[in-house]
Write a structure and sequence with these properties.
The complex is a heterotrimer of chains A (291), B (309) and C (328). Chain A is an all-alpha fold and 291 residues long. Helices cover 75% and strands 0% of the residues of chain A. Chain B has 14 helices and no strands. In chain B, α1 (2-10) runs antiparallel to α13 and α6 packs antiparallel against α11 (219-255). The longest helix of chain B has 37 residues, at 219-255. Chain B is flat. The chains are: A mainly alpha (291), B mainly alpha (309), C alpha/beta (328). The complex binds adenosine-5'-triphosphate and magnesium ion.
């Protein structure tokens, strides 16, 4: 765990991804403070205006401030996804740990349910749930949680099984530690990097999916700012004002790329085996030059 | 081996029941009343209690849940998915042309994705750690993190509007395939290409490769053996690519106005046309299940250790 | 036909961290002689021969001179090395089980090698292999060719490699611990094949082994390595009778202890002085019930048909060998 963290700290890409993510989250939380204008304020005279001092990224088809919409869009596009992911992870972790630690009947039941959930394609089921319960961000996130917890539960179960066989856990058990204590002190820290990798990659795909569904008009409803929907509005004006497509598209891309790079870096930090030759060679060359 | 295949195929039956049951339950969980949707879609001016009761009986909605499920299942087995609430046409008639279009796009995507990822996987494994490997990996990594609808619209803007080379949307000739296939397969490629590359690299460290080299066999032949072994692990994933693409075309179909299943489904969601959504879920979940089993069987047949068992 | 090989000032290091694996190694194998390389695990025996054939990982670098057939192998490009490998220098590996492509029949790899090296068509290649396999006492070679590696035992695969060597008639054979992964009986038979191989095609050979008993049987000269350096070199009798270097003395004395151990087991079972016991002591290898060997051919994974007490002895022997620490 400490090892993984110290390796990540040395990885420039991982650190910058982490910085970008934290920055965007903070900007999103304090959107009121950072946004220069009201994201909902319509101004017909400023339709499709280019960037100006007052409106740094220009205005959209209703003359609303693009930058403000982008900043407020962080909440719907990123923060809610993060909250949903947190719920997913919590459910998955709890069920996975229960299954892996207590084994037996409980394990059997949980894993059967997981099997059934996993045999359904998540994209299709998300569409189905949205179709049945109506459009809206709430239903999309609900669908995400319903379809994704099983993945986490599975991974955590096997991780827990792996670690409960390790000597120090056996030792703690033998020396009469409470189950809760063992879980908190030994097992959670051990599987934390795995949680981080999965969560990071999942958030990235989830951001893409939520914005995709909003792009189709199935997610957030107008006029609430959301990146996917901003893109779909910009698409209608594509022929005359292609510039409109850039800000929200780039925002989605930056978020998704940061999360997947972060996940990748954590994975690399976790296993020593996959350190590439070129990477090592370069490091070595640099060392020699410095010396 | 034969037993394995038969056992695997037989698992379709319980899967079919689970899938159909869930699709059926979903529609019944829906908060919106189907009768109301139908009446409203048909432009009935005044909705009276009587009218609702009448339609309910007409649709058989007054019967108990399980009876309705069995009736519906019986219809589905005879390819009768009910009538659309909105157009009043049989769902099967609406879905089948859309299914054909989606299938075309999914197949084209799968073929391109597989070929591209195999090609790039081999090249990158050969030049592991070099510029070309790292460049391709980062490029595809970033591309697969870009929203497909964004790349799609940018591609339309560039190739169709700016250069006026390709049609913006619709179906018809092969040129209509170019943009959607390009956009989708390049996104999917990131995943499959990495899988092939990593499994090639794993195989390169195997003993038999060193032995073949030490026997002085040509490098081309060695690579052939490496490829042969690494493709085996990828086959199951490739089989899952087809249903994955079918489900993944939803956004692309809407961007390129492709008259496929995804577009039909999205417009049905807006119209609250539940039977179509139900049929969509059923068809895709079933094809996931079928291709999954197919992939398992192909893997087993390709692997000599499993084949003889 | 055979050639001598002369290695001088060979240095091998890991380019990633500048870790030197072989430091300034020089030795020579004369024509038609067999050099055994012994030494503890990690002493760089495998790395040396990998350097000779050039099949090491890309980050491993070699300098020095490997004179073979009038050329310095280290200066040749991949193309010409590929020509030399197989036809002129042939390697036999430790683990037969993983040496063949698991997804193809044995035949496929052999055909490719023979097509590349001897320009043989499919049928001719099969024919060539079948006669070579007959020479190494493999029963039913036609059937074996159509099997997958997992269907054959380690000893059979090892013999197939030897058969391939017979077919290719290389000038230099390098065997890297060809018997380590095998059980005692199979070891005996594989070593026998090696001795025959040397007799039949009379090639130069480099033979790496942990097992001094095997070395004594097969080699003419011994090179003792430790930590990537040559410790001692000389004709086999000299090394075994009057080892100069303390490390060699240690190695040889462990073997002597082994012999004593074995004598003790035999005493316990009351077999001392029997013909078999003497043979084991003189060759340093496990107890073999020879009568079955020729008739059984290579069906060695099939342990039936052997005397029941045989197994017990085999295990006892293994455990004792392990205790004295001569393996690894
Ligand atoms: N691919 C490699 N990259 C870097 N170093 C290596 C590699 N393979 C081996 N080494 C190093 O080379 C040294 C010698 O290894 P080698 O395999 O030659 O030993 P060996 O004498 O053959 O041992 P054994 O008897 O176990 O086969 C080892 O210390 C190892 O650390
Ligand atoms: Mg070795």
């Amino acid at each position: 765990m400490m090892n993984v963290w110290s390796k990540i700290k040395k990885d420039r890409i991982a650190v910058s991804c982490l910085a970008i993510i934290l920055m965007i989250i903070i900007v999103g939380i304090f959107a009121n403070f950072f946004a220069p204008n009201d994201p909902l304020e319509i101004n017909a005279t400023l339709k499709f205006d280019g960037p100006s001092w007052e409106y740094p990224l220009g205005n959209d088809q209703l003359g609303r401030c693009m930058l403000s919409r982008l900043i407020f869009g962080i909440r719907t596009s990123v923060l809610f996804v993060l909250v949903a992911m947190f719920a997913t992870i919590s459910i998955g972790t709890i069920l996975g740990i229960i299954a892996g630690y207590f084994k037996g009947k409980v394990d059997e039941v949980i894993m059967r349910v997981c099997d059934i959930v996993l045999s359904f394609p998540s994209e299709v089921m998300t569409l189905a749930i949205v179709g049945m319960f109506g459009t809206g961000l709430k239903n999309i996130l609900l669908a995400c949680i319903l379809m994704k917890w099983a993945w986490f539960a599975r991974v955590f179960r096997s991780a827990v099984m792996k670690y409960t066989d390790k000597n120090y856990v056996m030792f703690s058990k033998a020396s009469g530690c409470k189950t809760g204590h063992i879980l908190r002190k030994h097992i959670l820290p051990a599987i934390f990097p795995e949680i981080a990798v999965m969560a990071s990659n999942n958030i990235s795909s989830q951001i893409l999916m939520v914005s995709g569904l909003s792009f189709l008009g199935l997610g957030v409803q107008a006029p609430t700012p959301e990146w996917g929907m901003m893109l779909s509005e910009a698409k209608d004006a594509m022929l005359i004002h292609p510039y409109q497509m850039l800000p929200s598209g780039i925002a989605i891309m930056v978020m998704a790329v940061s999360f997947s790079f972060l996940g990748d870096s954590i994975r690399d930090a976790m296993d020593v085996k996959h350190e590439g030759y070129a990477l090592k060679k370069n490091r070595f060359k640099r060392k020699r030059l410095a010396a | 081996m034969r037993n394995y295949i038969i056992r695997r195929i037989l698992t379709i039956i319980p899967m079919f029941f689970i899938i159909s049951f869930i699709s059926f339950v979903l529609i019944n969980l829906s908060p919106s009343d189907p009768v109301e949707i139908i009446l409203r879609a048909n432009g009935v001016p005044v909705v009276t209690e009587e009218l609702i009761e009448e339609t309910k009986i007409e649709l058989g909605l007054d019967q108990p849940f399980l009876v309705r499920y069995v009736n519906w299942l019986n219809d589905v087995i005879h390819l009768d998915f009910g009538k659309s609430y909105v157009t009043q046409q049989p769902v099967f008639k609406m879905i089948s042309p859309a299914f054909g279009y989606t299938m075309q796009l999914a197949l084209a995507n799968t073929v391109v994705t597989i070929m591209l990822s195999i090609f790039l996987g081999i090249i990158c494994a050969q030049f592991e750690g070099r510029m070309i490997d790292r460049g391709t990996r980062s490029f595809l990594f970033i591309i697969s993190a870009m929203p497909a609808f964004w790349i799609g619209t940018l591609a339309i803007w560039f190739f169709s509007v700016k250069l006026n080379l390709l049609p913006t949307s619709g179906v018809g000739s092969w040129t209509n395939f170019v943009l959607p296939t390009m956009v989708m397969s390049i996104g999917y490629c990131g995943f499959y290409f990495r899988m092939i590359r990593n499994s090639m690299l794993e195989n390169m460290n195997e003993n038999y490769v060193v032995y073949a080299r030490s026997c002085g066999v040509k490098e081309k032949v060695v690579v052939k053996h490496i490829f042969r072994n690494s493709i085996q692990t990828a086959v199951a994933a490739f089989c899952m690519a087809i249903p994955g693409m079918m489900a993944g075309t939803v956004v692309i179909e809407n961007v390129f106005a492709w008259p496929g299943l995804g577009r039909l489904c999205v417009s049905s969601i807006f119209n609250r046309d539940l039977p179509i959504i139900q049929a969509y879920v059923l068809i895709l979940a079933l094809s996931y299940c079928l291709f999954n089993i197919f992939g398992d069987i192909v893997t087993a047949v390709l692997n000599p250790k499993l084949r003889k068992a | 036909m055979s050639s001598s090989i002369k290695i001088s000032n060979l240095k091998i290091w890991d380019d990633r961290d500048d870790d030197v694996i072989i430091k300034d190694l020089s030795f020579e194998v004369k024509k038609n002689r067999c050099l055994a390389i012994v030494g503890e695990s990690g002493s760089g025996k495998s790395m040396t021969v990998k350097g000779i054939t050039g099949i090491h990982k890309p980050w491993i670098e070699c300098t020095g001179c490997i004179a073979f057939d009038g050329e310095n192998l280290l200066e040749l490009g991949q193309e010409s090395m590929q020509k030399i490998r197989g036809r002129k220098i042939f390697m036999i590996f430790q683990d037969g089980m993983t040496a063949f492509d698991p997804s193809c029949m044995i035949r496929v790899g052999l055909r490719e090698t023979l097509a590349e090296k001897l320009d043989l068509k499919k049928e001719a290649a099969d024919h060539c292999m079948i006669s070579a396999m007959n020479r190494v006492m493999l029963n039913n070679p036609e059937e074996i060719l159509q099997k997958y590696p997992h269907q054959l035992s380690g000893g059979m695969l090892q013999r197939i490699m030897i058969a391939l060597a017979l077919a290719l008639e290389p000038e230099l054979i390098i065997a890297d611990e060809p018997t380590t992964a095998l059980d005692t009986i199979t070891q005996y038979e594989v070593v026998d094949q090696f001795i025959k191989l040397r007799k039949e095609i009379g090639t130069t050979m480099i033979f790496i082994s942990h097992d001094l008993g095997v070395v004594r049987q097969i080699a003419d000269d011994v090179l003792v390595m430790k930590d990537g350096e040559k410790v001692e070199e000389g004709p086999i009798e000299e090394i075994f009778t009057k080892p100069q270097h303390p490390y060699t003395q240690y190695l040889v004395s462990t073997r002597a202890a082994l012999g004593t151990n074995f004598k003790r087991i035999m005493e316990e079972t009351g077999d001392v002085g029997s013909e078999e016991c003497e043979k084991v002591l003189s060759t340093g290898r496990g107890f073999i019930h020879e009568a079955e060997d020729d008739s059984q051919g290579c069906e060695l994974s099939n342990e039936q048909g052997r005397m029941p007490w045989y197994h017990w002895r085999k295990w006892k022997w293994k455990i004792d060998t392990w205790k004295t620490g001569s393996w690894d």
